[in-house]
Amino acid sequence: MAITTAEKRIYVNDVAVRDGFQSEPNFVPTDKKIALINRLSKTGLAKIEVTSFVSPKAIPNLRDAQEVMQGITRSADVTYVALVPNERGCERAIECNVDEINLVMSIGETHNLANMRMTCEQSLEQFRRVITLLRGSNIRVNGTVATAFGCPFEGDQPLYRVLWAVEQYAAIGMHSVTLADTSGMAHPAQVSRFSEAYQTAFPKLPATLHFHNTRGMGLANVMAGIAAGINSFDASLGGIGGCPYAPGATGNICTEDMVHMLQSSGYDTGVDLDQLLTIARDLPDILGHDVPGHIIKAGKRTDLAPMPVTASQATH
Predict the structure, then answer these.
(1) What would the CATH number be for the domain defined by 9-302?
(2) Partner of 178 for a Cys bridge, out of 18, 207, 208, 270, CB 3.0 to 4.6 A?
(3) Is 243 in the active site?
């Protein structure tokens, strides 16, 4: 039976400060990152992906990971997430008392080699070592299946391989899974099929969908995921970000655009859209360039304009 919007709560996770800032041409100062996260923490977001505990040589823009994670003011209602690439990154995340770590493997072997410098089996073995380090902590683990909807080098990935990756994650002991459209290849019919298959195979393992808007189908894919029963979605403030190892990839779906769409459609996101828009409108000044988001430019669909003077005069 279809779930009506009145019965459906959608959880919104913002990844701009990690996924977005990592590819920026200029370093965003630490104090500005902290201030932005503190503002986002008050909007009703479910999760904020704060940073990545990766080598500064690999991603210079996130070289202040510990300072940012330790400098933010945390809200009890928000889960603060960090991407962890290896055991050393996990140790740093533990020191900073993150709420959740995100482990990422591309099921496209070619992309995993380009992005992680490892085969999938090597990634899984590393994940097992990370999970061992976390024993006794309260830190939750989310596993991301990257290129789940298509690899830019290999093309579509078969559904059985996506489910195989999730099965490996569940066996390792991960608490939740994200299916990521790393290079924006997903389309609504595919999203519907994969989401339904996931929930049939893993009904007790919470799922999040992570879409990019590379080919303009990002928000349509969100609606397809919701119709198939998924209730958690990643997005990025202003629509910034994109995988540096996916040729032609553009930004993530835009957080404020997604919230506007969902709330306009009657879904409960728990997010204060007006507050979110105020923050998003400050993002171009922080980054020094325009951002792809639509609503910060066009306004909400309920924001009406005054009648033009010429039209008013024509009535007399």
Answers:
(1) 3.20.20.70
(2) 208
(3) yes
